[in-house]
Design goal:
6 strands, single chain, globular, alpha/beta
């Protein structure tokens, strides 16, 4: 039986960007949603018109705000901007493809690929730092808005940290779960702990890119 103080979270990754399609590390740099990402955002917005939620939160990075804005236009929610929902800061890797990083920074890329959670990318963050920031942010929001349903548009790295936390999955373990653009992921915060209920729901995208003609 659900407690009246349970906080429900609809956690969403932003729509696809130009750099997503090129495989570039984005981090804190901005890349606009591409045509597919815009269609995904509209499909997400349509889906969320059929959901009840109390607050619409978003990372302050452009791709998340673009996605959240499409939702807000349909649902009427104001966007609460939360900078702690930003993607991992990728430092010297930002704006580059993995091949470019390997060519320019071979030692740093090897360390990154070793899955050491305490490796700090020069100018960036470690996985553990991202984990702490992400979990602390979601937990503080859940406690502050106890009993409400929150929708939060964030980034793959941030959502992966909450997934790992809820599933007790070690940080050094290679990721074996998908991070879908505009995928809907449902969590519940109860008695100080997070529970994952649904991951990677993309049913709204089945017809997102259909030609209307």
């Amino acid at each position: 039986m659900a407690s009246s103080a349970d906080t429900h979270l609809i956690a969403i990754r932003h729509g696809e960007t130009e750099w997503n399609s090129e495989g570039r590390f984005q981090g804190h740099l901005n890349s606009a949603l591409n045509a597919e990402g815009l269609a995904q955002a509209q499909a997400l917005a349509e889906r969320l018109t059929r959901e009840r939620f109390d607050l619409l939160l978003s990372s302050d990075l452009g791709r998340a705000l673009q996605t959240a804005s499409a939702v807000a236009m349909r649902t009427g929610h104001e966007i609460v901007v939360e900078p702690r929902l930003r993607e991992r800061r990728m430092g010297i890797f930002q704006g580059l493809t993995p091949d470019e990083v390997q060519a320019r920074y071979p030692e740093e890329y090897a360390r990154f690929k070793s899955h050491d959670p305490d490796y700090v990318i020069p100018g960036g963050e470690s996985t553990r730092q991202l984990y702490q920031r992400s979990v602390d942010c979601f937990t503080e929001l859940a406690q502050r808005h106890a009993g409400l349903t929150l929708a939060a548009v964030s980034h793959g790295g941030v959502l992966a940290m909450l997934y790992r936390h809820a599933q007790a999955m070690p940080l050094h373990t290679p990721r074996d779960f998908a991070l879908h653009n505009t995928g809907i992921n449902r969590f519940r915060h109860r008695d100080g702990s997070w529970q994952l209920h649904i991951w990677g729901d993309v049913g709204h995208l089945e017809h997102a890119l259909d030609d209307p003609e």
